[in-house]
Amino acid sequence: VLSDTQRPQYEASVQEWQDKGLPPQLAQQLSELRYLEPAFDIIETARTRKLKPVDVSKVHFRLGEALRLPWLFEQIDALEVNGRWHAVARGVLRDELAAHQRALVAQVLTLPGSSAEDKVAN
Questions:
Q1: What is the spatial distance between Cα 5 and Cα 14, in angstroms, rounded to a whole number?
Q2: Is the pTM of this model over 0.90?
């Protein structure tokens, strides 16, 4: 389900965990955790649209990649936090970006195309 540009980061994470002595299966599971963050949005969209979660997740990740949203999330995470209110503001930025991505995914799912790539290209 991960895009071609996200896969190297995932594989590097797996290798990093294995280099620390973790078994391959556990290293994979730990590396997958960061990609589970949008799981609730994906499942909710799949439920309301009566689609398979895997199909929604493909659109979610392809659209995110097309809009460079992983980079934008990283920039938000890199914002300096000096106190509680900065942390709250950073959290709100993340939540707002995720909400916009969820809304865009729902719209893209209505577009013509048989694959996630086709839908995002439209």
A1: 15
A2: no
